[in-house]
Design brief:
The complex is a heterodimer of chains A (177) and B (88).
Chain A: H1 9-33, H2 38-58, H3 67-89, H4 105-117, H5 119-129, H6 135-141, H7 147-171
Chain B: H1 5-13, H2 19-31, H3 33-70, H4 75-84
Helix pairs in contact in B: 1-2, 1-3, 2-3
Classes of the chains: A mainly alpha (177), B mainly alpha (88).
Chain lengths: 177, 88
């Protein structure tokens, strides 16, 4: 059984380690028997864990099978899709690199800028808007006195980020759609 | 306590909070270009924050992967996995 609660970093690390121990051997066996190598298996499993975490932990989806079988299923899908793409392009060199890039190049630039200039706020905000952490958990995790203080800080951070985006928009010509 | 503009924009975009308040803001946006831009910037902020979260999570997973394949503490796990990829 995995945690249903969005976990602080330490617990998240423990969760991923446990899922590796439980499910990675089966994924590795499958990829090896399909002609893949260890690097393929590690890449596929990392992507599978990301999808698993988004679905099961963040969006609280309850798989109809065991967590191990569910992860194996996701990993198989990713691997098969990757191979399909490979067959279509008929060349490894043409295969797209997996690192996703935001559709708008300007948003990509902004993300890189905010990673450096507003890390504390970005961490806090992603806990709420991406990981969907409750205000109670967020308040405890980031050491706020109470939920109200956490809420106030969350909006201050959001305003700061919005303001930085606005300022940057003056330097990035292609920003306004 | 007065609700901040950021919070009001959020309530409008996420369809939460007082309906009358949201309708009022919507009407203000129609006649105020600067306010309309703020809404647009806030939408972009959410998009960037979610992408940041995803990349952060990917990094955390990658760290665990590295740990499991490089730390001697997990040597038996490493041997077990490597045995699946040994040429027959």
């Amino acid at each position: 059984m995995v945690e249903t609660l969005i976990a602080p970093k330490q617990t998240k690390e423990a969760l991923f380690t446990r899922l590796y121990m439980d499910a990675f051997p089966a994924v590795a066996k499958y990829i090896s028997s399909s002609g893949g190598n260890l690097e393929d298996a590690r890449d596929v499993f990392q992507e599978a864990l990301l999808i698993y975490y988004e679905k099961v932990i963040i969006n609280q989806y309850e798989p109809k099978t065991t967590h191990k079988a569910y992860l194996l299923g996701i990993a198989k899908n990713i691997y098969l899709k990757g191979r399909e793409r490979l067959t279509k392009t008929k060349s490894i060199e043409n295969l797209e690199v997996k690192e996703e890039v935001l559709e708008e190049p300007v948003l990509e630039k902004l993300l890189l800028f905010l990673q450096r200039a507003g890390k504390k706020c970005m961490d806090l905000l992603q806990s709420f808007y991406y990981e969907k952490m409750s205000m109670t958990d967020l308040s405890e995790y980031y050491g706020f006195r109470n939920e109200r203080s956490a809420t106030v800080q969350k909006y201050k951070c959001l305003e700061k980020i919005r303001e930085q985006i606005r300022k940057k928009s003056l330097t990035y010509e292609d920003f306004i759609d | 306590m007065k609700t901040s503009l950021t919070e009001r924009i959020e309530q409008l975009l996420h369809k939460k909070g007082d309906l009358a308040e949201r309708l009022l803001l919507e009407a203000q946006i129609q006649v105020n270009t600067e306010l309309a831009e703020q809404v647009d910037f806030q939408k972009k902020a959410y998009k960037i924050i979610r992408e940041y979260g995803k990349r952060k999570l990917r990094e955390e997973i990658n760290l665990v992967d590295k740990q499991l394949f490089e730390n001697p503490k997990y040597i038996s796990f490493q041997h077990k996995i490597l045995s699946y990829f040994k040429k027959q």
